[in-house]
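Illustration: tRNA (guanine-N(7)-)-methyltransferase.
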Amino acid sequence: MLYDPTEHRIRSFVTRAGRLSTGQARALEEQGPKFLVEYNKAPLDYEQTFGRKAPVILEIGFGMGGTTAHIAAAMPEKDFIGVEVHTPGVGSLLKLIGEQNLSNLRIIQHDAVEVLNFMIADHSLAGVHIFFPDPWHKARHNKRRLIQAPFVKHLVQKLAPGGYLHCATDWEDYAVQMLEVLGAEEGLQNTADGYAPQPAYRPLTKFENRGLKLGHGVWDLVFTKK
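Result:
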């Protein structure tokens, strides 16, 4: 089943032009051929892609990739697919892959909704990470937020039984919306009574650390597929 909430889908991201650093450009050239997976309208063969059979975790919107690389390094027994549209972020994560010699990470530079629709088989993911998605904080833009009921239902379809969905945000009203939407999805079960403690595998980002020192909150939500 394809996810198509509206005939003219509103994108939850804006493609921003960003300047590539020398290191990012070099990483794209040197690491890209091995670790970039081309978007294709066909289910991805995980075993062929990674050269082994292992649980696969998808991250949607990895930004500059620091958290993604950290988690992949800490969990060598699992394979990770990061989806991001912005080239500097892709270059940054490729650079980290090269520096840390990470073999269990691949990148797809494309719209995550289309990747889910065509490249991710149903019931095939061990987990999904969505950390600090664009909050679209102006009320009139809230409809652009990624975490909404139809999209969450689509994510659940891609999770294997017992698979998990981990979201995090530093916008309280988005956290409230996430909790409401995830809690209303009949295919999911909350692992906590409300918001979850920050899982040990998710590191604090520099931005997050700065926010916490200023008294800003961060909310984690971890749900599992029934």
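Reading the tokens back as a structure: The chain is about 35% helix and 20% strand.
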